[in-house]
Description:
CATH superfamily of the largest domain: 5'-nuclease
Structural class: alpha/beta
Order of helices and strands: EHHEHHHHEHEHHHH
Number of helices: 11
Number of strands: 4
Shape: globular
Strand order of the largest sheet: 2-1-3-4
Low-confidence stretches: none
Number of domains: 2
Amino acid sequence: MAGYARYTALLDACVLYPIAITDSLMSLATAGLFAAKWTRRIEQEWIAALGEQRPDLKGRLDVRRDSMREAIPDWEVPEAARAPLIGNDILPDPDDRHVLAAAIAGHADCIVTRNRRDFPKEIVGAYGIEVVDPDQFIICQWDLEPIAAIAAFKRMRARWKKPRATVEDFAQALERSGLPATAKRIREAAELI
């Protein structure tokens, strides 16, 4: 498998589970700001976690999963590519070894996760991979391509039709989801979003 010309981010299950974070990352990826990658196992993890928290959604998350796959056609790091790379790296949570293996196999530049402490810099950094919080990651993408990022968030907000979100509603939803710096940028660019 060859590397990618664009900056590549492996998205951990914890950032694919909250809809506002997922939608933000998918919006930036579809705008071409970075290449998004994940695995079927990561999908299973976010679907199980969301189904546990929201039993009313159990069995109804396939539409969301399929929409994500359709939006990012080159999303998958195949099992066959990552399985041989699941090593004996000592991570705080041994169940996260598959995430690191997927990042290596997917030629990821970073892992976007809310659980940064689960991926110690001295271990993950040895593979040339950075571990980034989703809010920090989004701000970095915004700083690199502000016009494309603003346009992506404008399109994202336009999709929120029930109820129609004001810029402040939109910013508050992002803030509640753990994206305070992103919410601040949305407020600063309110006239454009």
